[in-house]
Amino acid sequence: MAMWVDVLRTKLRSTYLVLRRPMLQLWPRLRVNAPKSPPPSLGSILVISQRRLGDTALEIPALHLLRSHYPEARLGVVAPAALQPLLRLACAPQLLIDYPGGWRSTRSTRAAIRRERWDLCIDLTTDYHLKPAWLAAASGAPIRVGFENSGRERFFNLVIPKLDSEHMADRFRRPLEVLGITSGNRSMSFIVPNIDVTLPAARPGQRRVGLHPGAAHPTQRWPVDHFASLARKIAGAGDQCLVLGRECEKDIVGEIVLKSGGAAIPVPLSGDILEFATILKSLDLLVCNNSGPLHLAGLLEVPTVSFMGPTVKERWWPRGAKARVLRRDELPCIGCNLGYCRIRTHACMKEITPEMAFEEVSSC
Fold it and tell me: Crossing angle, helix 273-281 and helix 292-299, to 10 degrees?
């Protein structure tokens, strides 16, 4: 039943997006020519950030570059409160505006935006969602930069075309390139201050391996039984194995701990993003799905072993030399980008065995 609900939801969304595009053509769009070089100065810049951890981690280098080009500008960033500490470290904004995401909260976010005057607004939303584009229009900025997707481009006057094969980290730099900002390294050193965390003590010389079983969609998750089997192998090799999860993931964490026979040690996450970053930095290795923690670990230069199935690898392959990925490239359905398995086997994740994962863990 759950799969059919997902299928119906997908079809309804596709129909809605097809109908939405011609309706949005009625939106009056300003015409502004793309600058041939970065504007020499800007008094104020508004950035509408992504709302999920992985997206935020991948957009941080672009935000850091933007700030380095306009160090004197008044910078405002619209983002969920839980992710704002990362953005504060990335680009030192003078104003952070909370964006929980619902339409009611969007109105209050819009009001906060309209209280300020903005010379430039950049919407980093790359998918079809309309609310961030609406917020960009509400900014009143004479230059509004955003991505093309199902008609939302009508809210912008500098539009970035859609490229499905582009990596997300590169995509987040495109608004800067439209403005003529092309210099700067693709990577950056991102330093998060340590905060006090309590973790199980490890023996001298013992590696600390973290498991994070969560992901946005069930199809992106490596099976719980596989995580439990891997935990037994890691502990049997003499390493410490920690399984990390927030309150909403406690059932998955508990099941892994139970099925591992106690080989996996649970570490509850409070939801504080700097606490989580500190925990990640304490690990010698993170084993996880293609999810937000993977991309945050990459930003922090923590070695990772990750599992990729329905995710489109051209967009979401982890960056960095310390990232290893297990993926069944020979499957004809690999990278379907769906929240359900249309062939009902979930082979892309189930056929990545604990033995395969342990071989990668052992060689790190």
Answer: 60
Q: Which amino acid is at 81?
A: A
Torsion of CA 4, 127, 321, 183, to 10 degrees: 170
Give pLDDT tens digits for 101-127.
777 778 899 999 999 999 999 999 999
What beta strand segments (E) does 214-340 contain?
240-245, 265-268, 285-289, 304-307, 323-326
Q: Give the residue from 321, 310, 319, 318 showing the smallest Cα distance to 349.
A: 310
Are 323 and 298 in contact by the 8 Å Cβ rule? The answer is: yes
Strands (E), the chain: 44-48, 74-79, 95-98, 120-123, 143-147, 158-160, 208-212, 240-245, 265-268, 285-289, 304-307, 323-326
Q: What distances in angstroms separate CA 199 from CA 23, 150, 240, one per listed residue?
A: 54, 46, 11
Q: For residues 332 and 349, what is the distance between their CA atoms, to the nearest angstrom?
A: 14
Whole-angstrom Cα distance, residue 149 to residue 154?
Answer: 10
- Give yes or no for a contact between 278 and 192, defined as CB atoms under 8 angstroms apart: yes
3 pLDDT above the threshold of 80: no
Cβ–Cβ < 8 Å for 238, 206: yes
Strand, coil or helix: what is 120? strand
Retrieve residue 225's tokens.
């039984």
Q: What is the pLDDT of residues 185-217, one digit of tens each?
A: 556 778 889 889 999 999 999 999 999 999 988
Q: What band does 2 get if pLDDT is binned at 50, 70 and 90? A: low
In this structure, the number of other CB atoms found within 10 A of the CB of residue 129 comes to: 15
* End-to-end CA gap in the chain: 41
What is the spatial distance between Cα 354 and Cα 226, in angstroms, rounded to a whole number? 5
d(Cα 241, Cα 264) in Å, to the nearest integer?
A: 5
> Strand 208-212 and strand 143-147: pairing?
unpaired
Neighbours of 254 (CB within 10 A): 14
Decide: helix, strand or coil at residue 153: helix
Beta-carbon-side half-sphere exposure of residue 59 (alpha carbons within 13 Å): 28
